[in-house]
Design goal:
It is built from eleven helices and eleven strands. With about 375 residues, it is α/β, with parallel strands linked by helices. The radius of gyration is 26 Å and the shape is elongated. It starts with 6 loop residues before the first strand and ends with a helix. The chain binds guanosine-5'-diphosphate-alpha-D-mannose and manganese (II) ion (MN). The site of guanosine-5'-diphosphate-alpha-D-mannose (GDD) has 24 residues, from strand 3, strand 4 and helix 3.
Length: about 375
């Protein structure tokens, strides 16, 4: 059922003729690579749902002739666009090219292998109609489920954690790794999709900058036919994407931390070694100096692009509190761990890791928080 697809209304007002092209409510973008067995099943299922939808299949010249299947179905149903690309060019650019061909107010992106049940689309549309900018089909909200094996589940969780740490835009989102989601077409410009990995949702989140998001539960099914195109290379690509989307935040933070440590040691040598001041005076001055320099470097380099609230001075105070919390955790960890017989070097390493995590988390979530 295509309620108002391709209907053109013409009306005249004085000497002007207006032409209004009414389009579908939603464009469903489906990238395919060797999914001949799956695409027909998926399209039949969508077509029986009575949606006011345009279906955009983007195929990368699949050797199994997925595109032929899609084109045959396109003749049968009339609401299917088949975009044919010359070769396997990655899922992200496939979605981008699909977006360029979409003509609806809303867009839904989904896989073609039936791991994403189309029956979730009405739930996504319901929230979009209510005014949400992005609606994510989520495995990790109540009612959601994932049929992944243990290894892929673990990878998915680690990937989610990394996203939460590095990208503030994913804050509060349970399944930022989802490949199944809908959004209002005009919240991004398709050209903003630059990567070529699997994690296109992250790019949509960052490019749109919206917080007006909801998640609806779904069950990520086992793949029945064909096989996954996701390999280890994809994980590395993912980490690179995270780093570039976050403007290399974590790396910069690490570099700043190291310069702080070097400055601290230098000042200690000068104050205690040269000027014969007491170790306590030296430690105090060296500590505050490195906190200040870390703060300035983070404020004007690491987080320079972040639109955070509060004056620089307030941030500096907060940063001091964060740092003392970090140092507290550092000492506490070393104290407790050595008490339990852990070697002091290992304990120190864990202490550094602990304070780094709280400092980084605190900087992201408190000091330079939106
Ligand atoms: N056009 C095109 N070009 N399509 C591709 C390409 C490509 O280079 N690579 C993969 N696809 C299509 C597949 O045919 C399938 O429809 C979809 O993209 C997803 O590929 P899969 O290989 O089945 O991915 P997955 O099941 O391992 O991972 C999915 O689930 C994850 C968890 O939600 C993806 O949706 C991930 O994005 C998602 O994170
Ligand atoms: Mn899949």
């Amino acid at each position: 059922m295509n309620l108002h697809r391709n209907i053109i209304i013409r009306f005249t007002n004085g000497s002007y003729t207006y032409e209004v092209v009414l389009i579908n409510e939603v464009s469903i973008i489906i990238p395919t690579y060797n999914e001949a067995e799956n695409i027909a099943l998926l399209i039949h299922r969508i077509e029986t749902m009575g949606l006011d939808a345009q279906i955009v299949v983007v195929d990368d010249n699949s050797p199994d002739r997925t595109a032929d299947v899609a084109e045959r179905l396109s003749k049968k149903y009339g609401n299917i666009v088949v975009v044919k690309r010359p070769g396997k060019n990655g899922i992200a650019t496939a979605i981008r090219d699909g977006l360029l061909r979409s003509e609806s107010k809303y867009v839904v992106v989904m896989d073609s292998d039936l791991q994403h049940p189309p029956e979730v689309i009405p739930k996504i549309l319901k929230d979009l109609r209510k005014g949400k900018d992005i609606v994510i089909a989520s495995r990790y909200v109540r009612g959601g489920q994932s049929d992944f094996n243990v290894a892929r589940k673990a990878i998915s969780k680690v990937a989610t954690l990394l996203a939460h740490i590095n990208l503030q835009e994913t804050e509060g989102i349970k399944d930022p790794m989802s490949g199944y989601f809908g959004f209002r077409r005009d919240i991004i410009n398709p050209d903003q999709i630059k990567s070529n990995g699997y994690k296109i949702l992250l790019e949509v989140l960052v490019a749109s900058g919206t917080k007006n998001i909801s998640e609806v539960p779904y069950r990520f099914n086992k793949r029945k036919n064909g096989k996954s195109k996701l390999g280890m290379g994809e994980f590395i690509r993912y980490v690179k994407l995270l780093l570039s989307l976050s403007d290399y935040l974590m790396l910069k933070f690490l570099v700043v931390g190291l310069t702080g440590a070097v400055l601290n040691l230098l000042l200690m040598t000068v104050i205690v070694g040269r000027f014969n001041e007491s170790v306590y005076i030296g430690a105090l001055i060296a500590l505050e100096a490195s906190i200040l320099s870390n703060f300035l470097l983070n404020n004007y380099w690491t987080y320079r692009n972040r639109k955070s609230t509060g004056t620089v001075f307030r941030k500096y105070l907060k940063y001091n509190m964060m740092s003392s919390l970090g140092s507290g955790i550092y000492f506490a960890l070393i104290f407790v761990l050595t008490l339990f017989g852990v070697g002091y070097l290992v304990a120190t390493a864990i202490g550094i890791l602990g304070s780094f995590s709280t400092n980084f988390g605190g900087s992201q979530g408190v000091v330079w928080h939106l």
